[in-house]
Structures are given as structure tokens and as C-alpha cells.
Amino acid sequence: MQINKLFDTAIIGGGVAGTSLLYTLAAFTPVKNIVLFEKYDELAMLNSNPKANSQTLHVGDIETNYTYEKAQKVKRDASFVSNYIYNVGGIEKIGFVRDKMVLAVGKKEVQKLKERYETFKSLYPYLELWDEKFLVEHEPKLMEGRTEEVLAMGARNQITTVDYKRLSESFAKNALDTDKNIQMHYNEAVTEIHREDNGHYLLRTENGEFHARTVVVNAGAYSLLFAQSMGYGHHFAILPIGGSFFFAKKKLLRTKVYTMQNPKLPFAAIHADPDCTQSWHTRFGPTAFALPKLERYHSLHLQDFIDALNIDTDVTKVYFDLFKDSTIRRYILKNFLEEIPLVGKEVFINDARKIIPTLGVEDLEFAEGYGGMRPQIIDKQKHELLLGEAKIVEEGIVFNMTPSPGATSSLAIAYKDAQTLCTHLGLSFDHARHERMIQSRI
């Protein structure tokens, strides 16, 4: 068996989370020897792939499920990504400047949106209220056949859309352009992690053994499985939620359009997104439904799925509490029906018409091959579904499971994790350089 030399840090997962950490370590720390393992043949093949997400840079301005406090944090985290895109010349290649809005439909939603605007306009000075007259001129499809009162809160000329696969590839390229010793291992899955007697970590793959002083696992649902295999995080379980999309057969919108979030529902309300990889055709979604998968379009080891569910009386209680709410029950049933061929569009169209009233079933097609899995974490001790970041930090090892919003927060999470690793390794983090290159726009 091949015995490789000792690395300072091993990163498991080549999505936007793993590559952002790779770049942050290479650019802003004295860490010299880094290895990244990606089990597929390219970076960002799962949730960071543009087919698996809505390609949104979540800033907190049009996401009505964010509190003011969360919006403050998300705004700062998102600025790291937008600054990076500007600073590397990635506008219209990685990140795209477009318009966006949240649409309120009906008197109750309109009133709530007005109140939200008054609360949030100091945090986002560029926000505007767009009345029906403006919408007729700006996005006429939103108003055709409309009978209910509407109001939008919008922003113009912001980075709204990001191709997170290209962003991941940019992070990796810029890390490799440094003088650090970086090894990229594609088509190589880590199967085991063990802590050795000297405090280092042994990582096994089908190609051999690797040793590292520190490890960060950015492997979605598998992050928790790795943690639990090492004795950590047994108070967590996973509810795997799959999302699907529908494409409009024509270009309908130029603007990213979100809708008002129902506060009772734990998952995102429907939105319409011009897709940067499909000539800006409008993509509607996502649906949200529990699926017996950990990766949407890849084979599943049944034992991994059973381990991730970690079902016991505590997990069952969380499921029961979710299902006993009639709003959530109806939502779950509706999303189940939306996944059924031939029937799905007929059900989904009712939600889509909240955005475009004249939309017909014949105008939509199921986005085959699109959608991903989000491992929603259940806290068994608190008997609740966690909708924010879930992370386990132990001595020299970090497990990132389901940061929300994950891709938007990737550089901010990497910033935090890199400092954690530097502390463990007795190294310094170059805060001044990070502030110049990431926290500011050059």
C-alpha cells in the first residue's frame, strides 16, 4: 500500500465549499502542503453544479424568510463572493449582473412587503419598491392577466446569478497558481478517516493511505457520516430533501423573481430564475420533497442512507411534529405530486402562475437532470429541524454539513475554517491581505 507524506491539511470534497477553503489556505495562510480529494472526475459535480441549484447569490435583500440579523450576516458573507468575482475579472463569466425582485401578491402580502421594505432599506439602500405601472414596463409577463394587487421590492444592477461550478474552478486555479504544494486527487473517494496516536489523521482511499495534520470534510450528507464513524455528531440525523425544477419553453423574464415566504414552511417559496447556462431561459422551482437519496443523480449505498436517517424516537418525534401541521402536510403532498410524471406540471402550474398568471401547462417542461439534494439536519436533542449552518468542530478536524445559504457563504465559511486550522497548526492568518483581496473590492 502506498504511504504518502504528511500533509498540513486534507480537504474532502471538490465543490464550492472545498475549493473556497483550498483557495483561502493557499492565498492567506502559511499552510504549505494541501491535498484535496474529489470522488468524481471534475470539480463541483453535485450541489455546486449549476443544474443542482438556482444559481442565486443570496444577499438577504429579497429572501423574505431571513430575519434582519441573518440578513446582516448573509450580506457580509455574500460580499466575499461578489468581491472575489469582481477582483478576478469574473463579471459575465462567473457572476452575472442582472435585476432581481421579490413579488408580493394580494393585500396581505403587499402590506407585509411594505413593512419589510421600511425595516430593511437601511441595510440595503439600493432597494426600490416597484408598483404595478413599473412592472408593466419592466416585466410585462408578471402583469398579463393579473387580477390581484401586487407590489415588488427590487434591485437593479446587482450580481444576482453565479455559476458556482465556474467559481469552484476559479478558486482551484488561483490556489494552484500560488507557490504552495497542492495535490488534486480526482476520481478518488475517501472511505475512512482515523485519528492516529500522534494526533494526526489517517485517510484511506482505494489508492492508498494519506496522512494529514488537519482535515476539513465538505461532503454534504457524507460529512455527518464521516463524523459519526469517528464518534462525533450522534445527536444529529439527516432528512434528505430533493429539489426539482421546470423550464419555460420560451424566455419569459429578464429578472430573477422570488415570492413571499410562508413563515410556516421550512423550505424556499417558488421563484423564477433566468438560467445562465441555458441562454437565460426561465427556470421555475424548486419543488422540495424527501427522497431516499443522498446524491440526486448518483447511485446510493443503502447502508449509508440508513445511517444518515439515524431513525429513533427523537427523529420520529421531529417527523410527527412536522406532519401534524396542516400547512406542512398540504405542502408535502403537493410537492410529492409535482414529482409524478404527467401529473407534476398540472400541480406545479398553480404555484408558477403566482409569478406569471397566463402561464399554461403546455408552456412548461420538467427540467430533466436538474435539481439536487439538501441534507437537512435534525437535532435529536432539541427535537427540531435545523435550517441554518450545521458544523462539527473537533481537534484538528471540521465537518461542514449543510451551511445555508451554502454556496453564497462559501468564502466566509472558508475564512472561519482556515483560522481554526491555523490555530491548531500554530500558524498565522494574513488578515490584512484577506481584507484587501476578499473583504474589499479592488
Question: How would you characterize this protein structure?
Answer:
It is a single chain. The mean pLDDT is 91. Strand 13 (271-274) and strand 14 (282-285) form a beta hairpin. The protein has helices at residues 16-28, 68-87, 107-120, 132-138, 164-176, 221-229, 302-309, 313-323, 326-338, 344-352, 410-425, 431-437, and strands at 3-12, 33-38, 95-105, 128-130, 150-162, 181-186, 190-195, 201-205, 208-218, 236-242, 246-248, 256-259, 271-274, 282-285, 289-290, 364-366, 373-379, 384-386, 391-394, 397-400. The chain is α+β, with helices and mostly antiparallel strands. The protein is built from 12 helices and 20 strands.
Descriptive terms for the model:
442 residues, alpha+beta, 8-stranded mixed sheet, globular
Count of DSSP-assigned helices: 12
The residue-averaged pLDDT reads 91
Radius of gyration in whole Å, from Cα? 22 Å
Strand share of the residues?
A: 25-35%
What structural class do the secondary elements suggest? alpha+beta
Give the CA-CA distance, first to last residue.
Answer: 48 Å
Helix content: 25-40%
User: Which regions are unreliable across 5 or more consecutive residues at pLDDT < 50?
Assistant: none
Bulk shape: globular
Q: Report the major sheet.
A: 8 strands, mixed
- The number of distinct β-strands equals 20
